[in-house]
Amino acid sequence: MERTGGGGAESELLRIGGRVGPAELAVVCGDANAAVARVDGGDFSLVAVTREGTPLCLLACSVGDHRWLLARDSPVIRVGPRKFSFAFPGFFYGLSLPDGSFDRDVDRFELVLERFCTYQNHAGRRDAEFSPRRRDTDFWASAYAKIDLLSSSALPPRGYSSPPAAALSIQSAHRASSATKLVAQALKAIANPSHHIHISGDISGGATFVFPTLRVVSDVAHVLQAAAGDLSGGAMTPLRRCSPLPGGGGAACWHFNLAGLLLILRTVSAVAVGAAAAGVAPECSTSSGAGGGRE
């Protein structure tokens, strides 16, 4: 399945669910006492968004209506036959694929993670924290400290702040999901990517694909927060570095420049004003060329 828009295309690479059962997504945060919140349940999907005529690309996962970015600076750890964690500043996602999902589909997903993410497979560990017999909530809570340690050791220090309160982490996760959707729509729809997107790193060798880091989600999450006039927190910790990345310190990556972020801010603000005037809840959608939209 492929959806196009304004020179970009979104392709579904993998879907798990349907008759085999729903996937479950949780947000886990905390220090000694981990807090776990179920975010969504439903079909799991993996999508690629590309921009015609450019190497710009992104990979994202969804469970139900919640979407998150796959990035080199977001370590992914397999902690069970059907369980994966995805580290973000201040929290991580806990993904539980349905027990009835086919091994070949899980293997396909793992191949993508191995190629495009900072990935570790600890599914064979016998640690009590990774016991598959635990209920999902107990599993993620007990595994938090071990996953946090493994994730932290997977990358050089990035200057992440200490974990915020659980409520703010959960709010951050929801805002990051909205930002990820908006990033995908903007990549497809921005009229002139060269004026609004900056590529860091060396692409002189003709890179086939250039992916974003978590910075792109952090930046757009702060744009959404500014558009909403919300100064209470809940956006992701600002990330300003686009390199070094695992697999080569000079690996290229992309993010929106100031002009791109201002375009997104103007578009989101205009949508919010129009929705308020019409007396309806605003969606992150637009037809002005900057992208957005619930998919």
From TrEMBL:
<protein>
    <submittedName>
        <fullName>Uncharacterized protein</fullName>
    </submittedName>
</protein>
<dbReference type="GO" id="GO:0005886">
    <property type="term" value="C:plasma membrane"/>
</dbReference>
<dbReference type="InterPro" id="IPR045036">
    <property type="entry name" value="Spartin-like"/>
</dbReference>
